[in-house]
Amino acid sequence: MHFDPSHLAALAAILRSGSLDRAARHLNVTPSAISQRLKALEDRVGAVLVVRGQPATATEAGERLLRHAEEVALLEDALARDLQLAGVGQASLRLAVNADSLATWFIPAMAQGARDGLLFDLKIDDQDHSADWLRRGEVRAAVSSDADPVQGCDCFFLGSLTYVATASPDFMRRWFAEGVTAHSLGVAPAMTYNAKDRLQTQWIETTFGIALSPPTHWLASTNAFVEAALAGLGWGMNPDLLVREHLASGRLVELRPGSRLSVPLYWHVSRSTASSLAALTRAVRQAAAERLAGVKRSEPVER
After folding, report:
1. Closest to 287 (Cα-Cα) out of 241, 227, 232
2. What is the C-alpha separation between 238 and 111, in angstroms, rounded?
3. Do residues 101 and 143 touch, judged by C-beta distance below 8 A?
């Protein structure tokens, strides 16, 4: 089945911008033209593709067609660059990445991708769950702690992000005056990113061999984790890359010196667009090699 490229572009613009009016402005056409293109595409498919609301969202069929439109755009963009054609546009790429990677090492890879003409639509999720976006077909690539290659994807080991259990000196004096023990950890306020974040409890289990659920502040922000630790709000697992200077200056201290967590990270990329995203994959691996620990040079693992 062939789809009119302008109809696919209209669908993608609606779902990315959240409304027909904004899609019209993005494509430099009238709202009426956007509406007509969407109707023509829905008639062609024989199904409703967009739920009109604030914002507009995709139906299951609309989501499937959006994935097709994105893949086509990436392939056409790569072909145009290979042929050195003039007027190459910017293809949009949806990928899943964990917040700590975004805050510590991933931006340089995105910057290289942007120079190559990519626009990014990031889905932020815990590293233990980001690969699920690929399994559902909602993104084309993901940074994940899952070493098991997603079906239909290539998988590259990137290195490990090292986490440190940190708190301010004042917090340590208040809550851990008698030492960091099972009892003190059970009453001292911790910080948790969201319900998927297990780093604090995992560190307790790994370091002390016990299962605890300490009282916690909920802070869904990597930078807020560091600021909250500095302010004495609680203790939490912070990426070493973000707190190294604070530890060196004494503004933060380790709860248990030398007891750290290493979270391995992998780059999963859909094989259907792997060739189109080869330059981005190189940029991701290079950025990881410069910042992450334990980098191994490996060939992609296929399934």
Report:
1. 241
2. 24
3. yes
DSSP symbols for 233-302: S-BEEEEHHHHHHHHHHTSSEESSTT-EEEEEEEEEEETTTTTTTHHHHHHHHHHHHHHSBS----PPB-
Is the backbone of residue 159 left (phi > 0), alpha (psi -120 to 50) or beta? left
Kindly list the distances between the CA atom of residue 186 and the CA atoms of 201, 208, 213, 217, 253, in Å, as whole numbers in the listed order.
11, 12, 7, 14, 19
User: Would you tell me how many other CB atoms lie within 10 Å of the CB of residue 231?
Assistant: 12
Question: What are the structure tokens assigned to 105, written together?
Answer: 């090492």
pLDDT tens across 73-118, in order?
777 666 666 655 555 557 788 899 999 999 999 999 999 988 888 8
Which domains are present in the chain? 1-69 (1.10.10.10), 162-262 (3.40.190.10)
Neighbours of 300 (CB within 10 A): 16
In this predicted structure, what is the pLDDT of residue 88?
53
pLDDT of residue 64: 85
Cβ 34 vs Cβ 13: under 8 Å = yes
Angle at 183 between CA 179 and CA 189, to 5 degrees: 85
Could you tell me how many residues make up the chain? 303
The pair of three-digit structure tokens given for residue 180, joined into one six-digit string: 């960091």
